[in-house]
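Reviewers of the previous submission asked for a worked example of the structure-prediction workflow described in the proposal, so we include one complete record here. The input consisted solely of the amino acid sequence. No template or homolog information was supplied to the procedure at any stage.
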Amino acid sequence: MPRLLAAFLTCVAAALLAAGTAFGIVTALDATPEQQNVPLVTFPEPPTGAASSTAGSGAG
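From that input alone, the workflow returned the following structure tokens.
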């Protein structure tokens, strides 16, 4: 009987430790500030009056 009790208590302790760790990780991730969404590469805007060479070209 003592071995069964020890096994049960070990399982309960492991489950509590896992739940506490998961809760701590989620709390730590929520506490970190969000990163700015700044693109690494930017492309210049095309001129508004220029016609696109690929638009309207029918194949066939």
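The mean pLDDT is 84. We consider this example representative of the routine output the project will generate in years two and three.
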